[in-house]
Amino acid sequence: MRWILPFLVGAVAVSAAQQPSSVYKDKAFTEFFRRTNGIVACDGAFSVPLSDERALWLFGDSHVDCWHDGTVPCLFQVRNAAMVHDKADLQNVRALIGSGKGFRSLFKNSTNEDMWFWPVSGFQHLNVVYIYLSSLRKAGSGPFGFASTGQDFWGLMKFPELDIAGYQPLPDFHGIDFGAGFVDGPATNQLYAFGHKRRGIALDIYVARFGKATPATNWTFWDGQTWSAQPTNAAVIATQAATSATVCKIKDKFLLMTSEFSVACDQGKEIYVSMSDRATGTFSPRRKIFTIDDTVDGHYPFFYLPVAHPEFINTRGELLVTYCINGYDPCIRTCVNGRMNPDHYRPRAIRIPLEWILR
Fold first, then answer.
1. Could you report the per-residue pLDDT of 55-99, keeping only the tens digit for each?
2. Domain assignment present for 295
3. Residue 47: other Cβ atoms inside 10 A
4. Could you tell me the residue range of the domain that residue 306 belongs to?
5. Number of domains within the chain
6. By the 8 A CB rule, do 26 and 320 touch?
7. Is 354 helix (H, G, I), strand (E, B) or coil?
8. Most buried among 12, 187, 279, 316, by the most CB within 10 A?
9. Which residues contact 112 (CB under 8 A, 6 or more apart)?
10. pLDDT computed for residue 338 by the predictor
């Protein structure tokens, strides 16, 4: 149902007359990712709200402290990194980057650089921040020369310091990556975990539950009728042709965001949303909410990973959504003489009126 009457966002009343007429680029947050020191180009852009009104941003392959004359090296310096800042302050940002030999990845539990982590969703419980780490290994060459190791982990960070406190192996999920989003469950200190598994050009979506106090054990998986202790019984709750998918909750609705299938330039360019009243589905048919506009010489980039950030809903009732672009190859050559334009590998930000989503 389209929201006509005034509604509340946090403690701020918003009337229909104040709503914008369309989705638009958020300039402040897009510029937030256009840095010339620290993390200067990256993808991922998952955010974790912290209890002290800070936000922790998580990134995958990143270029660090290498900006020069508007370019960066074609090869990134770290496999993962993070930034933290007060939610109301986009200027004073602290980069979190690892140290030691080899890649300065923040999350790293091996000296083998053919194995690495990509951090995705996370949550805070008391004095620990848990980050879901998708564990990858080198498998071939080129931009898609990687595969899952079959063993994902929790990365543990001390709160409020955000120092790395260790790693906990997760159960065998039989190929499901459960880092697509965490949402508070119906029971106290319980979370829903949303995951996905590729099947051709489609992603099958799943949901599980676990307790915040014991997130490495005692998971249960929705089997279509009830919660099962066996991940092999997990039922598909939604399927979409997509490169990537994430899930969050807005008001009383579960929001599934997907990107049109894209693995190179001039392929997918749409961001979609589906809604459900329940964590277990059924989700509505997907609806297009934005066509990316990051063209160069008329070409669209390889793009993926739309992520909603409910902690950044503004006083006008607009949801912050980020997405990633990753070059314009083969339409436009990304790497020239060992350097590249960092803007071709930086997250973008848009604002979507809640009334568009929740109608």
1. 999 999 999 999 999 999 999 999 999 999 999 999 999 999 998
2. yes
3. 22
4. 1-32+256-278+286-359
5. 1
6. yes
7. helix
8. 279
9. none
10. 95
CA angle 242, 155, 160 (to 5 degrees): 115
Is the torsion defined by CA of 42, 44, 48, 49 positive or negative? positive
Q: Is the CB of residue 352 less than 8 Å from the CB of residue 271?
A: no
Q: Are 93 and 101 in contact (CB under 8 A)?
A: no
* Residue 329 within a domain: yes
DSSP string, 210-221: EETTSTTS--EE
Average pLDDT for 227-232: 97
Determine, yes or no, domain membership for 299: yes
Contacts of residue 333, defined as CB under 8 A and 6 or more positions apart, other chains included, come to none
pLDDT, tens only, 129-146 = 999 999 988 876 666 677
CA angle 106, 341, 63 (to 5 degrees): 10
Please, which pLDDT band fits residue 149 given cuts at 50, 70 and 90? confident
Residues 180-186: contacts with CB under 8 Å, at least 24 apart? 180/120, 180/121, 180/205, 180/245, 180/246, 180/247, 181/121, 181/246, 181/247, 181/248, 182/121, 182/122, 182/123, 182/132, 183/247, 183/248, 183/249, 183/254, 183/279, 184/249, 185/209, 185/279
Which of 162-165's residues contact partners 24+ apart within 8 Å by CB, and which partners?
162/56, 162/82, 162/84, 162/96, 162/129, 164/106, 164/107, 165/128
| Within-domain flag for 187 | no
DSSP 8-class letter at 321: E
Apex 211 CA angle, 129 and 97, nearest 5: 15
* 203-219 core/surface letters (b: 16 or more CB in 10 A; e: else): bbbbbbbbbbeebeeeb
Q: What is the spatial distance between Cα 119 and Cα 58, in angstroms, rounded to a whole number? A: 6
Contact (Cβ atoms closer than 8 angstroms) between residue 323 and residue 300: no
